[in-house]
Amino acid sequence: MSADGAAPLIAALFSGRIRRPPVGDLLGTEYLSYDLARGEARLRFTALPTFLNPAGKVNGGMLAAMLDELLAVTLTAAMREGEYNVTLDLGARFLKPAVPGAIDGVGHVIKRGRSVGFVEGELRDAAGTLLVRGHATMQIQAAAPPAFRTTS
């Protein structure tokens, strides 16, 4: 619980009490774990053959979408139910090409202000090879859109 007694948003998101973003279906998102004390979230994505570019590697835009989803979910560790975040800025460094299959993400909250949060994270393939490292600035809004409010 936060200082005001509200449940952390990440708990509601991982439990399914709050609708998960539909983009997660496209990306094959699995919610693995979170750690409130560390401000950390772990997700797994599935890169499909339809994500490939002409070189036979996962398109960078798809990896950026995975990173964005990871970082948005990560920031919910520092948010309360009823709040919502949107990406203001996303930066990514593509370090190795990715192939279809599982891609694991770990994100960390760097700082949460009153209306802005800063997060960073990385994506790795099943062998543990670092594929992408990135960061984001997210605006924190006071009310979630109706489509993403609590389901119960």
Features:
alpha+beta; six-stranded antiparallel beta sheet; globular; single chain; disordered N terminus
Descriptive account of the structure:
Strands 1-2-4-5-6-3 form a six-stranded antiparallel β-sheet, with helices on one face. The longest helix has 16 residues, at 60-75. It contains three helices and six strands; from the N terminus they run ααββαββββ. The chain is an alpha+beta fold and 152 residues long.
What is the 3D shape?
globular
Bin the helical content: 10-25%
Strand fraction: 35-45%
How would you classify the helix and strand content by structural class? alpha+beta
Radius of gyration: 15 Å
Would you summarize the structure shown here?
The chain is an alpha+beta fold and 152 residues long.
Helix-strand blueprint:
Elements: H1 9-15, H2 23-27, E1 30-35, E2 40-47, H3 60-75, E3 84-94, E4 101-112, E5 116-125, E6 130-141
Antiparallel strand pairs: 1-2, 2-4, 3-6, 4-5, 5-6
